[in-house]
């Protein structure tokens, strides 16, 4: 299960020296996190359907 990434490129290897899977995100409220999580799920489902 992949959560918290709206950018498909985020699933690819990071730049050297960057811990794997790390994204620099601004501090967001719990409500915003939930919204981002839902959008991420929708995007992932859409990508999976296209394959």
From TrEMBL:
Region (Disordered): 1-26
Protein name: Uncharacterized protein
Organism field: marine sediment metagenome
């Amino acid at each position: 299960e992949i959560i918290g990434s709206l950018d498909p490129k985020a699933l690819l290897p990071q730049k050297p020296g960057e811990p794997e899977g790390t994204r620099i995100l601004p501090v967001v409220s719990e409500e915003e996190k939930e919204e981002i999580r839902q959008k991420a799920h929708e995007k992932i489902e859409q990508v999976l359907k296209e394959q």
